[in-house]
Amino acid sequence: MKRSEDRILTTHIGSLPRSLELLDADPATLKHAVDEIVGRQVQTGLDIITDGELSKPSFITYINDRVDGIKVHRHTGEEPDAFWMQTREARTFPEYYAKLTEDLAGAAATFEGDVETVGPLRYTGHDLLQRDIDNLKAAAAEAGAAPENLFMPSVSVTDAEIIFRNSYYASEDEHLYAIADVMHEEYKAIVDAGLVLQVDDPTLITHWIAAVDDTLADTRRWAERRVDALNHALRGIPPDRVRFHTCYSVDMGPRVHDLELKDIVDIILKINAGAYSFEAANPRHEHEWRVWEEAQLPDEKLLIPGTITHSTVLVEHPELVAERIIRFANVVGRERVIAGADCGFSSVAGAAGVHESIVWAKLGSLVEGASRASERLWA
Predict the structure, then answer these.
(1) b/e map of 168-201 (b: 16 or more CB within 10 Å)?
(2) Which among 68, 94, 298, 338 counts the fewest CB atoms within 10 Å?
(3) Backbone φ and ψ of 218, nearest 5°
(4) Confidence (pLDDT) at 78
(5) Taking residues 221-237, what's their average pLDDT?
(6) What are the CA-CA distances from residue 25 to residues 19, 21, 22, 31, 140 (Å)?
(7) Neighbour order of strands in the sheet with 164-166
(8) Mind listing the pLDDT tens digit for each residue in 61-97?
């Protein structure tokens, strides 16, 4: 994995605004769309790029098409997504989350419905994954991006677990590790193709808001077990080919119950990854850069803090982006910071919370802010 050796490198978290129509596009149309979005990332000045997850209905449910042993009970798309109504947030702000749930009803079709594990889990997504790898590499070559600057997101074991309802395995642990074995195949294939693997794991820290009766100790025990399973899925993969991303989901709500980084950072650092990506550019978490003054970040590990956010349509000033970068650089060293975003900008196809035009303005501000930070850090 590249380090910021002579300037601050830039990246984002993967998903970019895309239309639902791309999900049914023919191969040539999809390839052309990937060519365009990769080219635009290069033109914007981003260093470490990907395909925008253009082929995926969402960062998580795409896995339904790549696994055997599950049954998808499809809904009509009219049922509202009630996830938020079951959370600590909704207990505090019930009116807000009732309205949010109603607004999300139209996008619920992207999540297809209830997914049930009904037999032995087996990875079958090799062809679909290879299509995405080939499209990304070809687009990067056309745009003049170096192969070592490419990454590909893949869903975490934990996030796959939350959508696969177990009706087959004898225990929760057996089911969890069966998922880990499945995801190992995708993780290894991405790395074997020469790409950096990004593991997307928002559930590791959003479990807290959903498990409304759990204590912090309960949540930490739960998270420890999921990290063990993720490391099982990452077995044999060099940590420096893996970046781990976690965030607090796509929620433009008040977020007063977000799990604090200080309460889980030690568990996150047990993940066998070479870089850790997390939210650091919004009013609930910007102050948490100080956590890294005490956290024991191993010398060989990197940080990819969010320096722009998906939680507001305001475009961050490049000077603020630079300040955010410099804070982290002063704590862990300039070479160990890559400027990133808080989260993906279109975790669900056709449902970007931030308009496409604003997303690109934000990414441009990220690039400019990294340039300003570099001028000062390498002065």
Answers:
(1) bbeeeeebbbbbbbbbbbbbbbbbebebbbbbbb
(2) 298
(3) -60, -45
(4) 46
(5) 99
(6) 10, 6, 5, 9, 21
(7) 67-74, 113-123, 164-166
(8) 999 999 999 999 875 444 445 677 789 999 999 999 8
HEC secondary structure over 186-202: HHHHHHHCCCEEEEECC
Contact in structure between 322 and 372 (CB atoms under 8 Å): yes
Whether the pLDDT of residue 41 is over 90: the answer is yes
The Cα–Cα gap between 51 and 62 comes to 14
Residue 104: per-residue pLDDT: 62
Is the pLDDT at 214 greater than 80? The verdict is yes
Mean pLDDT, rounded, for 172-183: 99
Distance (Å) of CA 368 to CA 2, 7, 9, 102, 330: 20, 12, 11, 38, 19
Rg of the chain taking only CA atoms, in angstroms:
19
Number of Cβ within 10 Å of residue 310's Cβ equals: 28
Strands 113-123 and 67-74: antiparallel
Could you list the beta-strand ranges (E) of 133-248: 151-155, 164-166, 196-200, 242-245
Exposed e or buried b for every residue in 115-125, given b needs 16+ CB within 10 A?
Answer: bbbeeebebeb
237-251 b/e with 16+ CB inside 10 Å = b?
bebbbbbbbbbbbbb
The CATH number, out of the four listed (1.10.579.10, 3.20.20.210, 3.40.190.10, 3.30.1370.10), of the domain defined by the range 9-67+120-377: 3.20.20.210
Which residue reads 């796509």 in tokens?
250
Query: What's the CA dihedral at 174, 195, 278, 185 to 10 degrees?
Result: -10
Copy the structure tokens of residue 282: 């919004």
Could you tell me how many residues make up the chain? 379
CB of 234 within 8 A of CB of 242?
yes
Q: Which of 302, 303, 311, 370 is nearest to 343 (CA)?
A: 311
For 250-296, write each residue's pLDDT tens digit: 677 899 999 999 999 999 999 999 999 999 999 999 999 999 999 99
